[in-house]
Structure of 7-cyano-7-deazaguanine synthase:
Amino acid sequence: MKGLLYSGGVESAHLLQTVDGDIQPVYVAYGFPWEEREREAAREHVSRVGNAEPLMVINVEHDDASRLRRDADTSEKDYTYVHGRSPSLLTNAVVELSAIGVTDIYEGTLASGEDTFPDSSRGFYDSIESALSIGLDADIDVHTPLYGMSKPEVIAELVRLDGSVGFEDTVSCVVPGDEACGDCYKCEERREAREKAERYL
């Protein structure tokens, strides 16, 4: 059995359908308003994939989750990120997964992460893999098979895969609602990446 941090987005949908063997997908929730839609999509995606167990949801309780939210306004675009997201995602997921004997963990970070967030570099993953192995007395392996790829490349592979969870099924909007808003930075990034993916198809 292999663990997969699953958000319902492009990268995790790609891994859900390409990682070999039985998979235990995990969604770690913090209480942000966009998470309900993500979880619903994630549960639906997982139900379509024969080698995937039902979605495991871990609720990390904060009295005020907004402390972790960072909304930045740069000269180029607005964006939102969660402070310490990767350390928290991995630690919470790996503790639960290792308790059921799952020590191979997959995560869909891309090459762009190293340039944007310090907790998305491969060096970070190597370090936390070592720390968790010591702390849990287990041989933890954190796999990042998409590292070094761009989002358009991953989208193109997802389209070519033509699997049970396609590009149109994935979600990435940070504005809560039943449908993607189409205007937030995530929707813009998704739209631009899909257009650029055409060069790889």
